[in-house]
Amino acid sequence: MEVKLKELLAISGYSGLFKFISQARQGVIVESLVDGKRMHVPATAKVSALADIAVFTEAEEMPLKDVLKRIEALENGGPAINPKSDSKDIRAYFEKALPEFDKERVYTSDIKKILTWYNLLQEKGLLEILNQVDEEENQEQTDDKE
After folding, report:
1. Which residues of 111-126 are buried (b: 16+ CB within 10 A; e: fewer)?
2. Which in 51, 79, 89, 92 has the greatest CB count within 10 A?
3. How many other CB atoms are there within 10 angstroms of residue 8's CB atom?
4. Are residues 121 and 73 both part of a single domain?
5. Under the phi-then-psi rule, with left for phi > 0, alpha for psi from -120 to 50, and beta for the rest, what region is 125?
6. Which pTM was predicted?
7. Each residue of 14-64: pLDDT tens digit?
8. What range defines the domain where residue 116 resides?
9. CATH code: domain of residue 96
10. Rounded to the nearest 5°, which phi and psi values hold at 13?
11. Beta bridge pairs of residue 19
């Protein structure tokens, strides 16, 4: 399944990640990465593309793809800690991957969500899309220079 990071969506009120399928009259059609089921998401729902999500750090916001790459590097491409682990363990783990994250503005619930997304991408063999984004950005920069 060819997927781009900007096509992967997080939808408020729903667990897991969704792939954008098409625009509908009053919302979007998405497919769950968890079970492959398609559904209509109304335009009133809060939908965020993973490419648009960032994590607060002490200096500035870090794009989610870079945070996921750090977890991937920490785990050598393997699964991350179980997001249902103890809150202290989750925060300590996340600090290993991203020591500069803003401890006051990044909540444990945010970290659990990120770990859940990482594990889902890892399980589905989709971690390569994190590098795909860099390749696309480099290509765009090369095109701009020409």
Report:
1. bbebbbbbbbbbeeeb
2. 51
3. 24
4. yes
5. left
6. 0.88
7. 989 999 999 999 999 999 999 999 999 999 999 999 999 999 999 999 999
8. 53-141
9. 1.10.10.1650
10. 95, -10
11. 8, 31
Cβ-contact 80, 71 below 8 angstroms? yes
What CATH number did the domain enclosing 45 receive?
A: 2.30.30.730
Position 65 scores a pLDDT of 95
**DSSP track, 59-103:** SSEEEHHHHHHHHHHHTTTS----TTS-HHHHHHHHHHH-TTB-T
* Helix, strand, or coil (residue 136): helix
Same domain, 31 and 74: no
Burial of residue 82 (number of CB atoms within 10 Å: 0-12, 13-18, 19+): middle
Give me the residues paired with residue 39 across strands: 30
**Domains identified in the chain, total number:** 2
Do 60 and 112 lie in a common domain? yes
Pair (41, 65) in one structural domain: no
